[in-house]
Amino acid sequence: MITRLTYLFLLFLSICTVVTAQPIRIGASDLLSDYVKEPIMAYAAENNLSVMVESTGTLPALDRLGSDEIDLAIIAVPEGTESPRNLYRVYPIAYDVAIVAVNSSNPIDEISVSSLGGIFGTNEELNHNTWGDLGLTGWGNRSIKPLAGMTSDSISLELFKHSVFKGGVMKPGVTVVNDDEVENLLASDAASIAILSRLPKMDSVKALMVSGRNGGPAFGPTEDNVHFGDYPIRLSFFIAFKDRDEEEMTDIMRALLSDEVAESLSENNLYPLPYTVRRKLIIDLDLEK
Q: Residue 73's beta-bridge partner residues?
């Protein structure tokens, strides 16, 4: 027979279960929300987690996080902009990049941000119109033919402008085409150079290494180089939540840093954190519990 005390205790446990069963509410940048939602929901189903993922945009997500309308935000933070580390617990999750590519027969292998500004932009510190302006021996009189790929599901062109131009705009001579046309144009014309949203797939096209505005070595767009900031044309995405919710967010952080989410990001031309970095973050989170 259940005593009154036992009944009250069971009632208390049932109330606690209802409270703790509240879903983890996630507001994500619309630039990657579609790529993380499915693997997160699959992880939640396998691990008895209740999760809601909404595509809100970065600023609305931060506003809603501040007012406790969501529990976790995934936000985009452009280079030169501070992440909200003074307000929240913040972790990196992914990056978007703009790729610069040329015909494989072109002898150039690396280029600086300033030189890219001179090729693609007006009112920049440099103005490059021929490959000879970049010091290519034997190519002195060959005109540079700049191309820019456009796609509805990528901001690579805007990211390039933000990262490369000091204050100018795109030169009127830049040919803007659909992103899926760019590689064929590069393959057919060795004097072309293009902005892409992804790494080239054709053997006759190669991605260039890029050095920063202040000089130094050039780096290619690999996961490590992008994550550590050596490749300069990138947009960072961060996970943010309140310090008080750290313990409650550990499981969903494990999902966000999982191989499944990383694979989904890669398949959609975003750069996840390098594997070793993701594993270390998960270990650190477990140790802090």
A: 27, 240
The closest of 102, 151, 148, 103 to 268, measured between CA atoms, is 151
**Average pLDDT, integer, range 74-85:** 90
CA–CA distance, 213 with 7 (Å, rounded to integer): 70
- Nearest in space to 269 (alpha carbons), one of 151, 173, 102, 108: 151
Q: What DSSP element (H or E) covers 113?
A: helix 113-120
Identify the DSSP state of 274. Answer: P
Round to whole Å and give the CA distance between 189 and 191. 5
Q: What is the pTM of this model?
A: 0.88
pLDDT band at 3 (very low <50, low <70, confident <90, very high): low
Check: CB of residue 162 under 8 Å from CB of residue 115: no
- CB atoms under 10 Å from CB of 13, counted, come to 10
